[in-house]
Amino acid sequence: MKAYLSRRYRFSASHRLNSDSYSAEQNLAVFGKCNNPHGHGHNYIVEVTFGGQVDPVTGMVCDLGALDTFAHQHLTSIFDLVNLNTLDHFKTMVPSTENLAIVVHRIFSDFTGATLTNVHVEETGNNSFDYPGEIGPTTASTAAA
Amino acid sequence: MKAYLSRRYRFSASHRLNSDSYSAEQNLAVFGKCNNPHGHGHNYIVEVTFGGQVDPVTGMVCDLGALDTFAHQHLTSIFDLVNLNTLDHFKTMVPSTENLAIVVHRIFSDFTGATLTNVHVEETGNNSFDYPGEIGPTTASTAAA
Amino acid sequence: MKAYLSRRYRFSASHRLNSDSYSAEQNLAVFGKCNNPHGHGHNYIVEVTFGGQVDPVTGMVCDLGALDTFAHQHLTSIFDLVNLNTLDHFKTMVPSTENLAIVVHRIFSDFTGATLTNVHVEETGNNSFDYPGEIGPTTASTAAA
Amino acid sequence: MKAYLSRRYRFSASHRLNSDSYSAEQNLAVFGKCNNPHGHGHNYIVEVTFGGQVDPVTGMVCDLGALDTFAHQHLTSIFDLVNLNTLDHFKTMVPSTENLAIVVHRIFSDFTGATLTNVHVEETGNNSFDYPGEIGPTTASTAAA
Amino acid sequence: MKAYLSRRYRFSASHRLNSDSYSAEQNLAVFGKCNNPHGHGHNYIVEVTFGGQVDPVTGMVCDLGALDTFAHQHLTSIFDLVNLNTLDHFKTMVPSTENLAIVVHRIFSDFTGATLTNVHVEETGNNSFDYPGEIGPTTASTAAA
Amino acid sequence: MKAYLSRRYRFSASHRLNSDSYSAEQNLAVFGKCNNPHGHGHNYIVEVTFGGQVDPVTGMVCDLGALDTFAHQHLTSIFDLVNLNTLDHFKTMVPSTENLAIVVHRIFSDFTGATLTNVHVEETGNNSFDYPGEIGPTTASTAAA
Lengths: 145, 145, 145, 145, 145, 145
Hints:
Six copies of one chain form a homohexamer. Chain A is α+β, with helices and mostly antiparallel strands. Helices cover 30% and strands 31% of the residues of chain A. Chain A has helices spanning 24-31, 64-79, 97-108, 137-144; strands at 2-15, 40-53, 82-83, 115-124, 127-131. In chain A, strands 3-1-2-4-5 form a five-stranded mixed β-sheet. In chain A, a hairpin with a 2-residue loop joins strand 4 and strand 5 (127-131). Chains in contact: A-B, A-D, A-F, B-C, B-D, C-E, C-F, D-E, E-F. The A-D interface holds A 17, 19, 21-22, 30-32, 93-96, 98-99, 101-102, 125-132, 134, 136-138, 141-142, 144-145 and D 1-9, 49, 54, 56-61, 64-65, 137, 140-141, 143-145. Strand 5 (127-131) of chain E pairs antiparallel with strand 1 of chain F, so a sheet runs across the interface.
């Protein structure tokens, strides 16, 4: 009986889209208003999904309390009420929400209670991003062949 | 043209997380406040997903009216405004939301209008669980090999 | 410049609607399925509204951190993951959501940072209750006359 | 680093479920109130999902501005504030929401910035439909075998 | 102890904004795309609010079951899955959502369990309308003077 | 027949809470993490409410198209994707969400189609602020006396 648990965490942060590989003109052309030097921000919603056997005694995929403690320590205490550009995680890459999803995936890959299967990040009510990691269904199918 | 129909049903119920395999001390250690003898509750949202060919005449995957009748008879009339621990479905297992998803999957597997592909249960706005059944993509891939 | 701050707190609890003034038959007739002896539950959302002058220096109606600390101590740490019927607050009254709104109003009336003007409680996505306290606009109008 | 971008577009439209292949009696029997000659309507939410490599310089799967321009031109300017039955897209098929998902899939398949992987349409808060296109996981698995 | 109960009802309907007092050109100029002869539609959410003393025995403002029965009979069974222009209620007025709020107010004014204090109608996620009836706070203030 | 129209506008912006009247230590003590020099951000939702007679011919309180044009010109084109601290509106006051509500009120007070009765701003899903302007019910009651 394999089930999936999804848990949402929320934080409010700002970011500026700007690439060191581009000139000021190129950055403006590519990122438009999102390139303004003072940044803008969002209420980010991060949903992490873990898959695993449902424990026949506890009826659970993993210990939710342990997951919340992990998330507080490694995600919300660091990402809430900051400018993402100032975090070490984004020293060498643009803090786009695609990259944020990849960063969050790396963070929760270290949680040992169950297998991380997806990271979903909502930037606004109209925009969201998913990063399932690199060992996705396509790879599995290829391996199966 | 295979499409997927998802339909949401809602009920308000209570539960107590407690395993007969554990001592009182163990139950408290594992389930914390969720083990309090008087229980607590949630507004559960159940979303069932069915896949099937879109009928070229009706333009539909299945008869939504028939699905609603089925859901009323087998789900909401039984699960709404009750304590889940008192239901036969949870006589031998903890009424965790993972197990609730599995129970709901068993119930809707008997609906004959289309193929059940997933059960999604939201326990709170921050917590949800998915159970796609045991004939999932992994099994299919393995069979393919 | 008088503004209003509203803050939402959430807890999951169960309740049973049953009045000591009624016989078992009367309770069943009045409360229906909500009278089942094992209870049922909800994800309650409590929104408290405070009015006050916007401080010309801080730009704030009140200290949100202080409000959150108060709410944790007096509301969520007590009401989350419990059966409302077991709380002292409901010893002499039915734990209906109307009465829950009144109880929450009493609790937050002790917060000294600003003036409590309303308590709003959502029981489900279709049901909500407001209790503005007894010194409402009608009374003020009468006083004005 | 393959990620997925989902973007929501919204429009308000009406439709009448009625098939030319059926008699008036059959249409009424199959579609019930949804067959009334004057139609009814919904606030449709369309979510299109695109997958692609995250560009190492921009940190993006595709140009969101270009997607929005495409969506305005090909979706919302055409589908908002109309009766779906009057659109060319539904000349030969019932404007069910399953068929709407298929139509939206055809439209966004022409967007060249990234690979369309799913179309999700919410008809009401309780009803939604997904159409991933015909080159789905099943086909991939079959190919793998 | 006066509290307020708000209850949400939902229906999906279509409408065309068109006034008999206007020429075709005037209607198009005033209502734009909303004047197209085939109409468009919405998932309307109606929230009715009732005020009343909280019954010291039941803990309730009014009998919710009775309100739901009333709403089914007088609102949802009539307004769901129809074109509002075809209803008697809109024979002599444009089925704008402002007028819909007024019509709903008239309907629920006949409910005898408590005092109707407001009707709120959501047309889309960005648009809503309130009609508190004609005996509003302004009248009360005037009377007070 | 006086009704109220509420319309929601959305923008994503960043802000830093910092008062020129305070020392760096005081600012940190009062605003905590919200005082970090690089700011953080939110998806702000602004809901403006206008009251007015329902026009007997159009069935409307005001011209929604004119309101949207006004809002685009004076609100969203200016406030979206910026840092609030850099706007002229906040040159002499902290860009708290209370002050943002007051600023938005000043802006929409210039809309001539109907009478502005309230500005509601949601900072997060748990936080919101209302500013009804200075000619509120309290003042009216006092005048009535």
